[in-house]
Amino acid sequence: MTNFKDLGITLDQTCMTGDKIKIAKILNREITIHSYKIVDSIKKDNTKCLQMQIAVGNTLHVVFTGSKYLIATIQRISDHHFPIVTTITEENDKTFRFN
């Protein structure tokens, strides 16, 4: 019988760890973004979802958002700049922004 470990299967992606946290809980708080990925949203058809591995203090969390502004902004950051320290703020029209 074959053992799974003998198959040599590895994933290219690194898994994100920590509890899921709502973006509302981290607004206006200093966070460290360690990594991110953009995937197809499972909640809204034909939209994207930003998944971020963050730390609040020394605690790791995962944040999910469909914010078009955050997606467009984070895509402009070179991978070699991570981890980065930032805060996320909310504008009047529910637009989230990195600061």
Total domain units: 1
Q: Helical proportion?
A: 10-25%
How many strand units? 7
Averaged pLDDT: 91
- The neighbouring-strand order within the major sheet is 1-4-3-2-5
Give the helices and strands as they follow along the chain.
Answer: EHEEEHEEE
Cα radius of gyration in angstroms: 16 Å
Instruction: Specify the overall morphology.
Output: globular
Largest sheet, in brief, is: 5 strands, mixed
> What is the number of helices?
2
| Structural class by helix and strand composition | mainly beta
End-to-end CA span: 55 Å
Q: What ranges have pLDDT less than 50 throughout 5 or more consecutive residues?
A: none
Assembly state: single chain
Question: What fraction of residues sit in β-strands?
Answer: 35-45%
Structure explained in plain terms:
It is a single chain. The protein has one domain (13-98). It has 99 residues and is mostly beta strands. Helix content is 11%, strand content 37%. The strands form 2 sheets. Strands 1-4-3-2-5 form a 5-stranded mixed sheet, with helices on one face. It has a two-stranded antiparallel ribbon with strand order 6-7. A hairpin with a 7-residue loop joins strand 2 and strand 3. The protein contains 2 helices and 7 strands.
